[in-house]
Amino acid sequence: MTRYIFITGGVVSSLGKGLASAALGASLQARGFTVRLRKLDPYINVDPGTMSPYQHGEVYVTEDGAETDLDLGHYERFTGVSSRRSDNVTTGRIYSSVIARERRGDYLGGTVQVIPHITDAIKEFVQSDATEDFILVEIGGTVGDIESLPFLESIRQMGNELGDGRTMFLHLTLVPYISSAGELKTKPTQHSVKELQSLGIQPDILLCRCDREIPVNERRKIARFCNVREASVIPAYDVDNIYQVPISYHKYGLDNEVLHHFGLQAQDPDMGPWEDICDIIRNPEGEVTIGIVGKYIQLPDAYKSLTEALVHGGIANKVRVKIEWIASDDLEKTENVSERLSKLDAIMVPGGFGERGAEGKIAAARYARENKVPYFGICFGMQMAVLEAARNLAGITNASSSEFGPTEVPLVGLMTEWSKDGGRVERRSGEDDLGGTMRLGNYECKLVPGTHAREIYGSETVLERHRHRYEVNINFLEQLEQKGLKFSGLSPDGRLPEIVEYPDHPWFIGVQFHPELRSRPLDPHPLFVSYIKAAKERSRLV
Ligand code: GLN
């Protein structure tokens, strides 16, 4: 029997609802339950695939090739459960499915309305293939937004239909400290709960974000005014690292209250693995500085999974990872390159789109190759490393990517541009036209024996998640290998390069896929562990 926990947010946005949901998932797992997390996003885009990273942060890609909200990354990192296409839905997708049904005549001439048709579609989504003990459903946005009303109505209905034994409402709020008065204020929480109540939802648990201790009296007041048990007013204090959150929730009784609500008994949770991680984060043996050369550096959320994967690599090597953000445009001036890169322990060129800053990324790859600085190129970062090798090692000076416009030498291009038979057709098609041309989700990669990649992974094949339109042109393999760039991972049919490396470099690897998407604190990705190890070794040399 699956139980549903609905997580809403009030007062202001950015309280960390995604993290709160993920951490609660981890706490329930520590009690021995199985969990799955889902996210309902109120915006009208069908998925975030076409949204700018400035608007929406990173696009998180699932194994089955869905482009989803970055909160799904938090869910996976905290619970280790791989998300699926069916774990994230937007208003846009709900509406487009209802409208498609209407066009097919499925509603038999009836008037199609928000209630019941849209709300039924939402409820169907929330309950689809539910086999876990708990499904945690995060509702995007803040209570009071017009956009999220159909979602709130749907979860209200589910509460009514399934009853308290199978549903629970958790509301995340803010208890601000007003310095001029020297007081904590509970009124915003009271108002936010009233708003929820006016929609027919009575929260069962309140999780109150606060930057200082909330005294018992204040908690009692919140409980009384908001109609919840006093023990169910749980403080959510700021912590020094996100992996501390499950521990903190447990300390203040969140998982206990959830079990109390459902009338469940369970084993005491084992928080040991989280405590071990936090110990290392608090007392590292050293520090490494990684330079990330990118376009969206003002907005670290655009690289969320990447920075987390670096932290995981750091935990595995017992070092703190300090990130230096380097605007790729800056490296287009030659005099900047060595000045900006020479103090780093390793260089990272992450995924990216479009021509702007590409020359700076190529310069970073060249600097790393020539100066033997560890280099990790992900997706676009691999493509730029290959372009660098072609231009500066193989002398193909006009090599380019057709992503930057028409080129005589599409060293990187759409497969249809460089393959004689027009390429492969196995790509999964997304629902929108732009998404449909991308290689998305898990694809297999065969590792070449005797390479760094093969040794790091310790297996013959790997499954990794992809999100790109362009491919490195396999016809250049021989020419580049002769000059020292080894193609160490290929698609099973041998037609698409997946990994490149320099065998005689301490650590220089480019991958066409996104390994950061499957790195988890309790199960760090081997490439990140090995990369940070190389950075650590360099930090001791220089
Ligand atoms: N822009 C490149 C492509 O589409 C790389 C994409 C990426 O880095 N995710 O192939």
Automatic annotation (TrEMBL):
CTP binds at S13, D145, I146, E147, K185, T186, K187, P188, T189, Q190, K221. The active site is at C379, H514, E516. It comes from Thalassospira mesophila. This is CTP synthase. One of its GO terms (cellular component) is cytoophidium. Residues 1-264 are annotated as: Amidoligase domain. It catalyses: L-glutamine + H2O = L-glutamate + NH4(+); UTP + NH4(+) + ATP = CTP + ADP + phosphate + 2 H(+); UTP + L-glutamine + ATP + H2O = CTP + L-glutamate + ADP + phosphate + 2 H(+). Pathway: Pyrimidine metabolism; CTP biosynthesis via de novo pathway; CTP from UDP: step 2/2. L-glutamine binds at Y54, G352, F380, G381, M382, Q383, E403, R469. Residues 299-533 form the Glutamine amidotransferase domain. Allosterically activated by GTP, when glutamine is the substrate; GTP has no effect on the reaction when ammonia is the substrate. The allosteric effector GTP functions by stabilizing the protein conformation that binds the tetrahedral intermediate(s) formed during glutamine hydrolysis. Inhibited by the product CTP, via allosteric rather than competitive inhibition. One of its GO terms (molecular function) is identical protein binding. The lineage of its organism: Bacteria, Pseudomonadati, Pseudomonadota, Alphaproteobacteria, Rhodospirillales. Keywords: ATP-binding, Glutamine amidotransferase, Ligase, Magnesium, Metal-binding, Nucleotide-binding, Pyrimidine biosynthesis. GO terms for biological process: 'de novo' CTP biosynthetic process; pyrimidine nucleobase biosynthetic process.
